[in-house]
């Protein structure tokens, strides 16, 4: 793959617009096509972003064979369906998180990637954030000794949102956990691995949507305290403490531009600004993998996505979080 990598956008919306801003920064990327369930909306989005092709259905874009890879940004409940459809047409896929609403769905996606020999990655952009990469490196080097405590939260006020929105419509896999709770869960998994056991408790909207969830992940020598919520804002710092010091990742930690390392009363600040909005870093990983013929990223692998969704499933089971399409 020597020429520019041709991208297709599945589902134009706010996150797709932000993603495209960073995609335009990648010199070897070409934003070739966009598809929506509404042709008029696809055309308007194409005109806004200078995209050549627009389609009134996702299938039409897949069948056109004018792109190499698609970015899927539909509501959560449709991620798996359209990722499968794309891979069945031989297209590579970057799928917004969570890649599936449950473990069995992610396992099916991974199997299809292997069968079709096409690239598949979950768009967990924080994994490629320069600050979080550096934090992971420092922990691996023992910079703060044996880690014993991690705290991370992600919350905002959303109670004024439309009940038909993706955050509040159970048919769209609504709630805080899959939308933003995945971030603190990811951080604990990324830095500490799979917990031996976990505890979780949630509060719900009268329509069944999970509104806030608190979690404790237990490790042999550490605990992670995690929270996500839609009922009000949180500070959105991440703190990691060890026997020799601590690391404080500045708000908003999942898209950090730096962090502080505290040891022996001294503070060392690391300034590591992300490029663009931060999606750029995961885009570069996709391009690297495609140009090297990989079907998964060594930095956020199929196994990583399967273990992450396993944690989501375990939290959901503890809290009784279910969606109508799972009944």
Q: Key terms for this structure?
A:
327 residues, alpha/beta, Rossmann fold, Dihydrodipicolinate Reductase, domain 2, six-stranded parallel β-sheet, 34% helix
- Rg, rounded, reads 20 Å
Gross geometry = globular
Largest sheet data: 8 strands, mixed
CATH homologous superfamily assignment of the largest domain: Dihydrodipicolinate Reductase, domain 2
Q: Helices and strands: which structural class?
A: alpha/beta
Question: What do the pLDDT scores average to?
Answer: 97
Characterization of the model:
- By secondary structure, this protein is of the alpha/beta class.
- It has two domains: 5-124, NAD(P)-binding Rossmann-like Domain (Rossmann fold, 3-Layer(aba) Sandwich), CATH 3.40.50.720; 130-273, Dihydrodipicolinate Reductase, domain 2, CATH 3.30.360.
- Helix content is 34%, strand content 25%.
- It has nine helices and 14 strands.
- The strands form two sheets. The protein has an eight-stranded mixed beta sheet with strand order 8-9-10-7-11-12-13-14, covered by helices on one side.
- The model has no long low-confidence stretch (mean pLDDT 97).
List the helices and strands and how they pair.
Blueprint: E1 5-10, H1 14-23, E2 29-35, H2 39-49, E3 53-55, H3 58-64, E4 69-72, H4 79-88, E5 92-96, H5 103-116, E6 120-123, H6 130-140, E7 147-155, H7 176-192, E8 197-204, E9 210-218, E10 223-229, E11 238-242, E12 246-249, E13 258-263, E14 266-271, H8 279-291, H9 302-319
Parallel strand pairs: 1-2, 1-4, 2-3, 4-5, 5-6, 7-10
Antiparallel strand pairs: 7-11, 8-9, 9-10, 11-12, 12-13, 13-14
